[in-house]
Amino acid sequence: MRQPLDLPSYLIRDAELYAPGRKGSDAVEWILSHYPVLLADLRDARRRLAGQEQEGAELDALVDRLRAIAAQIAEL
Fold first, then answer.
1. pLDDT tens digit string along 37-75?
2. Is residue 7 within 8 Å of 28, Cβ to Cβ?
3. What is the DSSP string of the chain?
């Protein structure tokens, strides 16, 4: 079921920029249909980034411990 929407022209123009090869209502439809996928991808990217930040913090702590051990060895 399709229903016409009265959208400002700037929204249609923006949709056409983000929907490759689509014009007018097809571009808006494409944006709306892909929005849930985009959100899921964004959430996944944030989750991966948080994991990488945690790994980076763990590696920094390990490097600090290794430097401390190396300093102790150098004192011997």
1. 999 999 999 999 999 999 999 999 999 999 999 999 999
2. yes
3. --------HHHHHHHHHHSTT--HHHHHHHHHHHHHHHHHHHHHHHHHHHHHHHHHHHHHHHHHHHHHHHHHHHH-
Query: In angstroms, rounded to a whole number, what is the distance separating the alpha carbons of residues 22 and 41?
Result: 22
pTM for the whole structure: 0.57
- Give the number of other Cβ atoms within 10 Å of residue 28's Cβ: 20
- Provide the residue type at 70 as one letter: A
Give the Cα separation of 42 and 39 in Å (integer). Answer: 5
